Amino acid sequence: MNDTVDKLVIFLAKRDGIDKLVKTFQYVSKLVNWQVETTHPDVANRFKQWEVSSGLSRKAFRTGRFLTGFNGLRRNPGATPTFKFLAVLANAGEMVYFFFDHFLWLSRIGTLDAKLAKRMSFVSAFGESFGYIFFIVSDLIIMKQGVEAERKLIALQEEEENSKDAKEKIRKIRGDRVMRLMAVAANVADLIIAAAEIEPNPFCNHPLSLGISGLVSAWAGWYRNWPS
Protein backbone atom coordinates (compact mmCIF):
# COMPACT_ATOMS: atom_id res chain seq x y z
CA MET A 1 0.00 0.00 0.00
CA ASN A 2 2.78 2.42 0.92
CA ASP A 3 4.57 1.56 -2.32
CA THR A 4 1.45 2.42 -4.33
CA VAL A 5 1.04 5.73 -2.49
CA ASP A 6 4.71 6.58 -3.11
CA LYS A 7 4.31 5.83 -6.81
CA LEU A 8 1.14 7.94 -6.97
CA VAL A 9 2.98 10.87 -5.38
CA ILE A 10 5.81 10.52 -7.92
CA PHE A 11 3.30 10.19 -10.77
CA LEU A 12 1.37 13.32 -9.78
CA ALA A 13 4.60 15.27 -9.35
CA LYS A 14 5.14 14.99 -13.10
CA ARG A 15 3.52 17.40 -15.54
CA ASP A 16 2.34 14.45 -17.65
CA GLY A 17 0.94 12.72 -14.58
CA ILE A 18 -1.28 15.69 -13.70
CA ASP A 19 -2.27 16.03 -17.36
CA LYS A 20 -3.46 12.41 -17.55
CA LEU A 21 -5.44 12.75 -14.32
CA VAL A 22 -7.20 15.93 -15.48
CA LYS A 23 -7.74 14.36 -18.92
CA THR A 24 -9.53 11.50 -17.17
CA PHE A 25 -11.78 14.06 -15.41
CA GLN A 26 -12.42 15.79 -18.74
CA TYR A 27 -13.58 12.72 -20.66
CA VAL A 28 -15.41 11.00 -17.80
CA SER A 29 -17.43 14.21 -17.41
CA LYS A 30 -18.08 14.25 -21.18
CA LEU A 31 -19.49 10.72 -21.03
CA VAL A 32 -21.60 11.47 -17.96
CA ASN A 33 -22.94 14.64 -19.60
CA TRP A 34 -23.92 12.67 -22.72
CA GLN A 35 -25.54 9.92 -20.64
CA VAL A 36 -27.76 12.18 -18.50
CA GLU A 37 -28.29 15.05 -20.94
CA THR A 38 -31.95 14.23 -21.62
CA THR A 39 -32.94 12.79 -18.24
CA HIS A 40 -31.16 15.16 -15.84
CA PRO A 41 -30.33 18.47 -17.62
CA ASP A 42 -29.08 20.16 -14.43
CA VAL A 43 -26.63 17.36 -13.68
CA ALA A 44 -25.56 17.27 -17.33
CA ASN A 45 -24.82 21.00 -17.23
CA ARG A 46 -22.61 20.59 -14.16
CA PHE A 47 -20.61 17.85 -15.82
CA LYS A 48 -20.36 19.94 -19.00
CA GLN A 49 -18.85 22.76 -16.96
CA TRP A 50 -16.40 20.28 -15.40
CA GLU A 51 -15.44 19.04 -18.86
CA VAL A 52 -14.83 22.57 -20.20
CA SER A 53 -12.93 23.61 -17.07
CA SER A 54 -10.72 20.50 -17.24
CA GLY A 55 -9.97 21.08 -20.92
CA LEU A 56 -9.01 24.72 -20.36
CA SER A 57 -6.88 23.92 -17.31
CA ARG A 58 -4.97 21.30 -19.33
CA LYS A 59 -4.23 23.90 -22.00
CA ALA A 60 -2.93 26.34 -19.37
CA PHE A 61 -0.78 23.65 -17.78
CA ARG A 62 0.77 22.81 -21.17
CA THR A 63 2.19 26.32 -21.60
CA GLY A 64 5.64 26.05 -23.17
CA ARG A 65 5.15 22.36 -23.92
CA PHE A 66 5.95 22.90 -27.62
CA LEU A 67 9.62 23.33 -26.65
CA THR A 68 9.82 19.65 -25.66
CA GLY A 69 9.84 18.84 -29.37
CA PHE A 70 13.44 20.06 -29.54
CA ASN A 71 14.34 17.65 -26.75
CA GLY A 72 12.60 14.84 -28.64
CA LEU A 73 14.83 15.47 -31.63
CA ARG A 74 17.99 15.27 -29.48
CA ARG A 75 17.00 12.06 -27.69
CA ASN A 76 18.32 9.58 -30.28
CA PRO A 77 21.47 11.01 -31.84
CA GLY A 78 22.45 7.54 -33.10
CA ALA A 79 19.16 6.95 -34.94
CA THR A 80 19.17 5.95 -38.60
CA PRO A 81 18.38 8.60 -41.25
CA THR A 82 14.90 7.10 -41.67
CA PHE A 83 14.06 7.43 -37.98
CA LYS A 84 15.60 10.90 -37.81
CA PHE A 85 13.35 11.95 -40.70
CA LEU A 86 10.28 10.46 -39.03
CA ALA A 87 11.25 12.08 -35.73
CA VAL A 88 11.56 15.52 -37.37
CA LEU A 89 8.10 15.21 -38.95
CA ALA A 90 6.47 13.82 -35.79
CA ASN A 91 7.97 16.40 -33.44
CA ALA A 92 7.33 19.25 -35.90
CA GLY A 93 3.63 18.33 -35.97
CA GLU A 94 3.51 18.11 -32.18
CA MET A 95 5.25 21.47 -31.80
CA VAL A 96 2.69 23.11 -34.11
CA TYR A 97 -0.07 21.49 -32.04
CA PHE A 98 1.18 22.74 -28.67
CA PHE A 99 2.20 26.19 -29.99
CA PHE A 100 -1.18 27.05 -31.53
CA ASP A 101 -2.95 25.44 -28.60
CA HIS A 102 -1.76 28.44 -26.56
CA PHE A 103 -3.71 30.80 -28.83
CA LEU A 104 -6.73 28.52 -28.75
CA TRP A 105 -6.70 28.64 -24.94
CA LEU A 106 -6.33 32.45 -24.89
CA SER A 107 -9.18 32.92 -27.35
CA ARG A 108 -11.47 30.61 -25.38
CA ILE A 109 -10.89 32.40 -22.09
CA GLY A 110 -11.52 35.79 -23.74
CA THR A 111 -7.98 37.21 -23.72
CA LEU A 112 -7.87 37.09 -27.54
CA ASP A 113 -10.74 37.52 -29.99
CA ALA A 114 -13.12 34.57 -29.57
CA LYS A 115 -13.44 34.38 -33.36
CA LEU A 116 -9.86 33.09 -33.51
CA ALA A 117 -10.79 29.93 -31.59
CA LYS A 118 -12.10 28.00 -34.58
CA ARG A 119 -9.07 28.81 -36.74
CA MET A 120 -6.57 28.08 -33.97
CA SER A 121 -8.37 24.82 -33.17
CA PHE A 122 -8.07 23.71 -36.81
CA VAL A 123 -4.35 24.54 -37.09
CA SER A 124 -3.59 22.95 -33.71
CA ALA A 125 -5.55 19.78 -34.52
CA PHE A 126 -3.96 19.54 -37.98
CA GLY A 127 -0.46 19.73 -36.50
CA GLU A 128 -1.46 17.20 -33.86
CA SER A 129 -2.76 14.73 -36.46
CA PHE A 130 0.28 15.20 -38.68
CA GLY A 131 2.65 14.48 -35.78
CA TYR A 132 0.71 11.49 -34.47
CA ILE A 133 0.76 9.76 -37.85
CA PHE A 134 4.56 9.74 -37.89
CA PHE A 135 4.82 8.78 -34.20
CA ILE A 136 2.57 5.79 -34.94
CA VAL A 137 4.59 4.79 -38.02
CA SER A 138 7.86 5.00 -36.05
CA ASP A 139 6.52 2.87 -33.20
CA LEU A 140 5.11 0.23 -35.57
CA ILE A 141 8.44 -0.05 -37.41
CA ILE A 142 10.36 -0.39 -34.13
CA MET A 143 7.91 -3.03 -32.85
CA LYS A 144 8.34 -4.99 -36.10
CA GLN A 145 12.11 -4.86 -35.70
CA GLY A 146 11.72 -5.93 -32.08
CA VAL A 147 9.67 -8.99 -33.07
CA GLU A 148 12.37 -10.01 -35.57
CA ALA A 149 15.14 -9.51 -32.99
CA GLU A 150 13.16 -11.49 -30.41
CA ARG A 151 12.78 -14.45 -32.79
CA LYS A 152 16.54 -14.52 -33.36
CA LEU A 153 17.19 -14.39 -29.60
CA ILE A 154 14.71 -17.20 -28.94
CA ALA A 155 16.48 -19.34 -31.56
CA LEU A 156 19.82 -18.48 -29.95
CA GLN A 157 18.44 -19.34 -26.53
CA GLU A 158 17.37 -22.77 -27.78
CA GLU A 159 20.89 -23.40 -29.02
CA GLU A 160 22.53 -22.09 -25.86
CA GLU A 161 20.39 -23.23 -22.94
CA ASN A 162 20.00 -20.89 -19.95
CA SER A 163 21.49 -17.94 -21.77
CA LYS A 164 20.95 -15.14 -19.24
CA ASP A 165 22.02 -12.48 -21.73
CA ALA A 166 19.41 -13.61 -24.28
CA LYS A 167 16.69 -13.78 -21.61
CA GLU A 168 17.45 -10.26 -20.47
CA LYS A 169 17.39 -8.90 -24.02
CA ILE A 170 14.06 -10.66 -24.70
CA ARG A 171 12.62 -9.18 -21.49
CA LYS A 172 13.68 -5.68 -22.53
CA ILE A 173 12.26 -6.08 -26.04
CA ARG A 174 8.91 -7.24 -24.66
CA GLY A 175 8.81 -4.42 -22.13
CA ASP A 176 9.56 -1.88 -24.84
CA ARG A 177 6.83 -3.40 -27.04
CA VAL A 178 4.21 -2.95 -24.33
CA MET A 179 5.17 0.70 -23.91
CA ARG A 180 5.05 1.29 -27.65
CA LEU A 181 1.66 -0.43 -27.90
CA MET A 182 0.40 1.97 -25.24
CA ALA A 183 1.87 4.88 -27.22
CA VAL A 184 0.18 3.69 -30.43
CA ALA A 185 -3.15 3.27 -28.62
CA ALA A 186 -2.88 6.80 -27.17
CA ASN A 187 -1.86 8.34 -30.49
CA VAL A 188 -4.65 6.62 -32.45
CA ALA A 189 -7.18 7.75 -29.83
CA ASP A 190 -5.88 11.34 -29.97
CA LEU A 191 -5.92 11.17 -33.78
CA ILE A 192 -9.66 10.45 -33.63
CA ILE A 193 -10.18 13.45 -31.33
CA ALA A 194 -8.11 15.68 -33.66
CA ALA A 195 -10.03 14.43 -36.71
CA ALA A 196 -13.23 15.59 -35.02
CA GLU A 197 -11.81 19.14 -35.04
CA ILE A 198 -10.39 19.04 -38.58
CA GLU A 199 -13.31 17.42 -40.38
CA PRO A 200 -16.40 17.00 -38.19
CA ASN A 201 -18.18 13.71 -38.85
CA PRO A 202 -20.81 11.57 -37.09
CA PHE A 203 -18.32 8.95 -35.87
CA CYS A 204 -15.45 11.09 -34.53
CA ASN A 205 -17.72 13.80 -33.14
CA HIS A 206 -20.07 11.46 -31.30
CA PRO A 207 -19.71 11.98 -27.50
CA LEU A 208 -19.20 8.24 -27.00
CA SER A 209 -16.35 8.11 -29.55
CA LEU A 210 -14.72 11.21 -28.09
CA GLY A 211 -15.19 10.04 -24.50
CA ILE A 212 -13.77 6.57 -25.06
CA SER A 213 -10.89 7.92 -27.17
CA GLY A 214 -10.03 10.46 -24.49
CA LEU A 215 -10.00 7.82 -21.76
CA VAL A 216 -7.92 5.39 -23.85
CA SER A 217 -5.38 8.17 -24.42
CA ALA A 218 -5.39 9.22 -20.76
CA TRP A 219 -5.06 5.70 -19.34
CA ALA A 220 -2.44 4.60 -21.89
CA GLY A 221 -0.43 7.68 -20.91
CA TRP A 222 -1.08 6.90 -17.26
CA TYR A 223 0.40 3.41 -17.75
CA ARG A 224 3.46 4.77 -19.59
CA ASN A 225 4.20 7.41 -16.96
CA TRP A 226 3.50 5.27 -13.89
CA PRO A 227 6.75 4.75 -11.92
CA SER A 228 8.20 1.26 -12.43
Describe this structure in words.
By secondary structure, the protein is an all-alpha fold. The protein has one domain (2-225). Helix content is 82%, strand content 0%. The protein contains 8 helices and no strands. GO terms for molecular function: identical protein binding.
Total number of distinct structural domains: 1
Q: Roughly how many Å is the radius of gyration?
A: 20 Å
Question: What percent of residues are in strands?
Answer: under 5%
Poorly predicted sequence stretches spanning 5 or more consecutive residues:
none
Number of strands: 0
Pfam family, one: PEX11
Family: Belongs to the peroxin-11 family.
Subcellular location: Peroxisome membrane
Coiled coil: 149-176
